[in-house]
Amino acid sequence: MADKAIERSPFSPRRPLKATQVSEAGLVRESPLRADSGPPLVLQPNDAAVDLVHWAGVHRAALMAKLIAHGALLFRGFSIDSPEAFADLARALTPDLLDYLERAAARSQVAPKVFTSTELAADQWIPHHHEMSYSHNWPARIYFYCDTAAAEGGCTPIASEREFFPRLDPAIKRRFIEHKVMYVRNYGHGLDLTWQDAFQTDDRAAVEDYCRRFNVAFEWTDGNRLRTRQVRQSIATHPQTGETVWFNHAHLFHQSNLEPEIREVLLQAFGSEGLPRNAYFGDGTPIETSMLDDIRALYHECAVSFPWQRGDVLLLDNFITVHAREPYKGARRILVAMADLHVSGAPSS
């Protein structure tokens, strides 16, 4: 259905395109995925022999402008057939890809600076989020590559802050902007990442140095486990457009995001302070679950979902566009690369 819509609607009525296309030679066509011209903008080859890596490098500036305009670009139907080819495309657009430190999810590296997407059980939903919005720094751009599409489900729904943020309850905005968000994490217990996996080191001194530099309170607990607390932003400003966007992980880290049965077991075993992860307002007061339910529900209302096709590459502006993951059945492998590190503040001395 999406492909037919693309053929019927080659240009976006909401954001008219100039007469000159990205490729003057007409090698690539572009169109919105949806009739309302919401994200993503789809780019497809007019000739199967198009070398997307070369073409993207030549038209990099125009593509980056289109990414800001639309928030997401979907490259579909090109010959991107391996993690290495995916990495080549990402580097053609953003030469310096990023490592993944202060991790919030298990991942495996499959090629230099190319990782598996979050390795969470297939029956679980991952809510919409900005990549690493719990941290002091994050990628400004994130790439996804479909190596293997799931037999059923497994989409990566996206939503635009340009739709979400204006619709968010002003009372919720005020509370979060005033107080920010505190994230409490307990690494270990066999329930979540170890600190060694999260910080990619076995050296406690290196972890302590990282925490001190970036204003993360830490304490070592029994069994060589680590607890951290950090207060971070609730909103962010796009470095190029100046737009204000909702930008935090409160609705993911908060205990209300756990299945009720699992939450009760963990609370009985560890208490709220001992949960693998939790979120509070920056002054330590609890966040009302109703607020977080409203945030999750509004992201769902704003979401766009489409089935993956083998070889798809989805490029997101991590400020403008959030992503999620649907449950799935069958084999599924979506790979990720990140680029253009944005630091929210200078490290403390």
Layout of strands and helices, then pairs:
Elements: H1 2-8, E1 28-32, E2 41-45, H2 52-58, H3 60-70, E3 72-75, H4 83-93, E4 109-111, E5 114-116, E6 126-129, E7 137-148, E8 152-153, E9 158-160, H5 161-167, H6 170-179, E10 181-187, H7 195-199, H8 204-213, E11 217-221, E12 225-232, E13 235-237, E14 244-246, H9 250-253, H10 260-270, E15 277-281, H11 289-302, E16 313-317, E17 321-325, E18 328-329, E19 333-343
Helix pairs in contact: 2-4
What are the salient characteristics of this protein?
antibiotic biosynthesis, globular, 349 residues, Double-stranded beta-helix, alpha+beta, four-stranded antiparallel beta sheet, dioxygenase
Average pLDDT rating: 87
Along the chain, the helix and strand elements come as HEEHHEHEEEEEEHHEHHEEEEHHEHEEEE
Alpha plus pi helix count: 11
Q: In total, how many beta strands? A: 19
Specify the biggest β-sheet: 8 strands, mixed
